[in-house]
Amino acid sequence: MFKGKNLLFFLISLLLAAGIGYVVRPYVSNFVVTQRNSSTSAEKMNKKEEKMASETETKKESSKKGTSKKGISKSGSAYSRKKYKGKAISAVLPDTWTIVERFNGAGSSMLVEGVTYQGLTGVEVLNASHVVVFKMEAVNGVGGVDACSEYYKFSDDNPQYYQQVLTDAQAVGLSVSIVDLSTQPYSEFTFLGKTFRRIGSKLYWDTQPGNDTFEAACGMSAHIIQFPSLSFTADGVTDHGYQISIKNSPSDADLAILDKVLATVHAL
């Protein structure tokens, strides 16, 4: 068949072909496997990234919802609020509510005529419908016996305080009837340094703070409250006596807002 150089050339060709095939086939095979592995990894990475993106979006949505609920819970209401700073007092109230301060004898029906008044003599709180729901009036020239014909009894009543009320009333010939409030639900807040409780549209204040009992003011003290941080003058004489009251039968919603507004009032 092959002789001499032809045989030698034939053998070398076979060896080269075998060597090249051996080198090329593993390379091609490895390349294909590598490509498959790279493709699979890319697919996994894409799926992972899509999953992470989806989870991130979900968390963002949850975060938004949580912030909204938390904001409402923290403030206790869904309305927006504003800060009020007048000449005599400051407060925080809904954007749609208003505070009006009155001076020099205006804003009070509890002042006698013929006297020159200077200073804060009235405060009004108006709701979103511009209706007066709270009024504070300076008091001058109104007097009487500071004894009680009614005693307001809460569940955390002080028996010693009750005995003192009885003694004071008997001294001026008054009998005392008990108004039992021990089972009535109430809201409690601090207004200008005094603790108040509200039942419906009626306000009661604690005459002896700093203990575990509630000694509700009665008699003249229930109507004329001394606020040391506020004052007015009557013919040059300084007075701190004011009467406060809830007006015009506010709704339960407005009463709840009013509690929060009064709790933020501070004297300037």
Low-confidence stretches: 1-5, 14-42, 53-77
The number of helical runs is 4
Order of helices and strands: HEEEEEEHEEEEHEEEEHE
Distance between the termini: 123 Å
* Shape descriptor: globular
The major beta sheet can be summarized as:
7 strands, antiparallel
> Structural class given helices, strands, pairing?
alpha+beta
Beta-strand fraction estimate: 25-35%
Radius of gyration over all CA atoms, rounded: 42 Å
Q: How many structurally independent domains?
A: 2
Q: Quick one: how many beta strands?
A: 15
Percent of residues in helices: 25-40%
Q: Mean pLDDT across all residues, rounded?
A: 81
Description:
The protein is globular. With 268 residues, the protein is an alpha+beta fold. The strands form four sheets. Strands 3, 4, 5, 11, 12, 13 and 14 form a seven-stranded antiparallel sheet that branches. The N and C termini lie far apart (123 Å). It has helices at residues 5-75, 159-171, 220-223, 252-263, and strands at 81-85, 89-94, 98-103, 117-126, 132-138, 150-153, 177-180, 187-191, 194-199, 202-205, 225-226, 232-234, 237-239, 241-246, 266-267. Helix 2 links the parallel strand 6 and strand 7 (177-180).
